[in-house]
Amino acid sequence: MGSAGEFDVDSDENIYIVGFKNKEYYINKIDKMGNLILSFGRRGEGPGEINTPIRPTIYDEHFLFITDMFKKLIYYDLRSGRCVREILFRTPMLIAECLPNNKFLVYKSKNSSGSKEIYFMCLAIYDDKWKMIKELDVDECPPQEEMGLLPPYFMWRVSNQGIFIVNEKRGYEIQKFDHDGKLLRKIKKEYRPVRLSEELEKEIAGPNYQVDHLYQGKKMRYLAPMNSIFCDDEERFFVMTYEKSDMGAGFIHNVFNADGLYIGDIIINKVWAGIINSPKYTVIKNNKLYYYREKANGFRELVVCHIKYE
Hints:
Blueprint: E1 4-9, E2 15-19, E3 25-30, E4 36-42, E5 53-59, E6 63-68, E7 72-77, E8 83-88, E9 95-98, E10 104-112, E11 119-126, E12 132-141, E13 154-158, E14 163-167, E15 173-177, E16 183-188, H1 198-205, E17 228-231, E18 237-244, E19 251-256, E20 262-268, E21 282-285, E22 288-294, E23 300-306
């Protein structure tokens, strides 16, 4: 399959994984027993073909849509892998996602004033004519020379009932909007700042971090409140912190219920270092948790386990 990337899971527990080193097709459909049953999403520039796949998402349990970065949004039939719809972007869009109400959530450039200035991206809702309805948030990206060891996070997840957004400039705060862009609630939690240890610095920057010029002078005393986010099909929301578990390998993930109340923690030992802005590497479907874990040989394996809430 090559290098496994983002993925999503359907109601029959089939997993759709983007494989970046595949020679002909990007997307692999794997059943719950681990068998490859279909490959689709041909590499290329033609109709239904794709070059830079990002954010694969099951839609209406019949389709998988995926963004060909800056170019188009493609819908594939889950059973056949056939392209059934293709929407070409009028202006470059980094990511576009179809919402349950047939509107679109779009992440795109807002403006740039040059390499020495802050680069702005925006997350906005568009109608089915691709006109912006409402801007939900702005991602301020500092120039490389002013960036710390980790870039400021800006992340979101779409659920059945809403859109969750986190932005590092607001600290530990989760904003939930409905699919029309109405702010439903703000979720805040006190957190314990995690000091950047040598072990974590090495994991973030890689084995050559002490001599890599990209990281020289980019020391941090404390890490950001969160690393990544995801939600389940019952509107629970999960936040990976940098707090390590005292019970062994893994990091503490705070869990919030559908009403935005903190209900506890889970520990997950998943791939995290070097991953920016929470790609779809962790999915919960029908109370099963799917995530990547690093093996002793350095390769990733996709782990599936049951989640039981008490």
